[in-house]
Amino acid sequence: MQYVGWLDSVDEVTFPYKLYTSTLKHSIIMLYVVSTPIGNLGDITFRAIEVLKFVDLIACEDTRKTRILTQRYAISTPLTSYYEYNKAAKGDFLLKVLKEGKKVALVSDAGTPGISDPGFSLIKSVLEAGFSVISVPGPTALISALSISGFATNKFFFEGFLPVKSGARQKRLKELKKMGCTVVVYESPHRILKTLEAMEQALGNIKVALAREVTKKFEEVIRQDIATLIAKFKTTKPKGEFVIIF
Ligand code: SAM
Question: Domain of 129?
C-alpha cells in the first residue's frame, strides 16, 4: 500500500511530515498504539487519524464506540473487538495477523491504550513475540485531570482503580496516604460514593479534586472536602466518569 500524505502541501516546519510519513512507511513497526479522545471527538491528532486510515486492522474495546470516531473522520479500516473477556483468544488472532505482515492499530474506548484497560496484555504479548510497538500519543484522563486539579504535579502516583473489596481497599488507601506525593485514582459513577466513603474512613476528611466528564459537555472539577462530596452524592446521583486527585 502506498501512503499518500495529505499534508504534502503544508509547511514542513509546522508539520514535519517527512518524519511523519517515514514513520508510517516503516516496514518493521507493526502495532500502533493510538490514543483517542476521552470525550470530545475533536481531541485526536492528525497523525492518529492518518495511522488509523493506513493500518489494515483496528483492534478496539467496543466496536460501537470506536465506530463513532471512525465515522466522524471517514476512516474505513475494519474494526475488531479486543476487550477484557476475549483478550486471550483475540490476542492470539492479532499476533497471527501481525505475523502475516499486516499492520494493526490498538485503540481503547477512550484515551491511551494500556492505561487501566486491556491494552497492556496485547502490548506485552506483541513485544514478547519480537514485534515492534509504536506510540501515537494523545489524550489520557489521568494527565488531563491532574493538570487542572490544582494539586502538585511535579511528583505524583497513578493508582488507577482501587481494589473493589473493602479490606483490600482500606489497606491500599493507607499505603497511598504515606506516598508523600499527589495520588490519582480512576473511578466509575457506580462506585464513586462507596470509594469516597472508604477514603474518608482511611484518610479523614481531606480535600480532593474530583474531575468529572473531562472534555465533555458537563465537565467539572470539584475541589472540596470528602464529607461535602459524600453529602452531595447522597442527594444527587453521580453521573459520568471520574478522576479523584488528593
Ligand atoms: N485508557 C484510559 C485513559 O487513558 O485515561 C482509561 C481507561 S479506564 C477503563 C476508564 C476510566 O478513566 C474511567 O472510569 C474514569 O476514571 C477515567 N476517565 C476516562 N474518561 C474520562 C473523562 N472524560 N473524565 C473523567 N475521567 C475519565
Answer: 17-138
